[in-house]
Write a structure and sequence with these properties.
- This protein has 20 helices and no strands.
- By secondary structure, the protein is mainly α.
- The chain has 2 domains: 185 residues, Growth Hormone, Chain: A (Up-down Bundle), CATH 1.20.1250.20; 213 residues, Growth Hormone, Chain: A.
- Helix 2 packs parallel to helix 5.
- It starts with 22 loop residues before the first helix and ends in a 10-residue tail after the last helix.
């Protein structure tokens, strides 16, 4: 029987087609992109709403932020075990609907006078909980949507959307706030999640995914198996350590805690100018997504991963040398170098992880990795804020830059990674 590669790309090996020609991937990419931008804008707007509507203190803002990331520590590992049993597309649709409902509570609370810090914490936790399941399912779902040989190409498209959302989402949120109010933006974001859920409904699972047997073992056993698989595997362990260290001092960690204060106070930038520089600098993500394949072909996967991982530290060195007279171009270069490095690294490391992980272990592997690398975020944010208030923002940036560059050491010291020329043959 002839197989249609557009409807069943996993089994269509005679006449492979590009990922953009596959209906399932286009639907997944569209949903992924809408969801990522919605999440980043939401996490930017919620603190603004707390400040403008509730006059929240810095401590309360930190509490809200902690509740948003807490689910990754609390349920990240069980989510991985469950997603190796559950229908991943259905989980993603449910997560999108859950986030849409949760966000809607904030505009309603604002209109009825019931908006409060506890409500913001509760909604932030609910959004974070749904995001845990969506993100882990998202990464584990791709190898069943496209052929295994095409996962690097698929990851390149998805990672560009993710990087663009992470770096452009806050600036886009700032621009929107100049035109409409925070509650109205949250209503729009609620609709965006519903659009993402609708787009996922157009993904048709290959028959091979539906017929795969699901191992019914105890959740504790599955969690242990996921952690053992990651930390007993030299390549996965080095990726987890390198990413965890860089996240400790990255945009969501220590750097994020001091960047705004450094830009607005030390460099005397306005919020609008800061948003503009972040938007322009984000073009580095597009450059990284475009060049990743060529760079790997020229230098080899291992060298590219090591170099890309050190680029964020180099970018912070540039940032630490900024002065008010050249703040805008310096921030543009800093953001561009960082965005390019993050995108190249994430495309390579996500594709590598998928290549060396069996299908039945994908979700547990992703959950274990996420647990390890996201667990450093609150520690980094608290450390960055403390150091910035005690030794100053610029000395803190130099410290962040040094640790950022050293984050490539786990990769450099792992021969299995250092010697990689291309992605290994993928496991079945």
């Amino acid at each position: 029987m002839k197989v249609d590669p557009k409807t069943n790309p996993v089994t269509a090996v005679d006449r492979p087609v590009g990922v953009w020609q596959q209906h399932n991937f286009r639907a997944l990419w569209s949903a992924h992109t809408v969801s990522q931008f919605g999440t980043q804008i939401t996490f930017f707007v919620i603190p603004v709403l707390a400040l403008t509507a509730l006059s929240a203190s810095t401590g309360q803002l930190g509490l809200i932020s902690a509740f948003e990331t807490l689910p990754f520590l609390l349920v990240g590992l069980p989510a991985g075990a469950l997603l190796d049993r559950w229908d991943r597309r259905r989980v993603m649709v449910t997560a999108d609907i859950g986030r849409a409902v949760a966000i809607t509570l904030l505009p309603i609370g604002h209109l009825t006078g019931q908006l409060s810090v506890p409500l913001l914490c509760a909604v932030g936790f609910a959004i974070g909980l749904c995001t845990v399941f969506f993100d882990i399912a998202d990464q584990a779902f791709l190898p069943t949507v496209v052929s295994r040989e095409q996962t690097p190409a698929g990851n390149s498209r998805l990672e560009f959307s993710r990087s663009a959302a992470e770096l452009a989402g806050p600036s886009l949120g700032g621009l929107l706030l100049q035109a409409i109010t925070a509650p109205l933006i949250l209503v729009i974001n609620s609709v965006s999640y519903l659009v993402s859920a609708l787009l996922l409904g157009f993904v048709r699972l290959p028959r091979v995914e539906a017929s795969e047997p699901r191992e019914r073992t105890r959740m504790r056993t599955q969690i242990r198996e996921g952690l053992q698989f990651v930390f007993h595997h030299r390549t996965l362990r080095s990726l987890a350590l390198a990413t965890g260290i860089s996240n400790l001092v990255g945009l969501s960690g220590a750097l994020g805690a001091v960047l705004t204060a450094y830009a607005l106070r030390d460099l005397a930038l306005s919020p609008g100018a800061l948003g503009l520089t972040l938007t322009v600098g984000n073009c580095g993500a597009l450059l990284g997504a475009t060049l990743t394949g060529r760079l790997i072909g020229l230098a080899g996967l291992g060298r590219v991963l090591i170099a890309a991982k050190s680029m964020s530290g180099i970018a912070v060195i540039i940032l630490a040398t900024a002065t008010p007279t050249r703040a805008v171009p310096t921030l543009i270069v800093t953001t561009g170098v960082m965005a390019c490095g993050i995108t190249v690294y994430n495309i390579g490391q996500v594709s590598l992880r998928q290549a060396i992980t069996p299908t039945g272990m994908q979700a547990r592997m992703n959950a274990s990795i996420r647990f390890a690398v996201w667990g450093t975020l609150p520690i980094g944010a608290m450390a960055g804020g403390y150091l910035g208030s005690t030794i100053g923002t610029r000395p803190t940036l130099w410290l962040i830059a040094g640790i950022g560059i050293l984050s490539c050491l786990p990769l450099l010291l792992t021969k299995d990674v250092r010697k990689l020329r291309t992605f290994p043959s993928q496991l079945l």
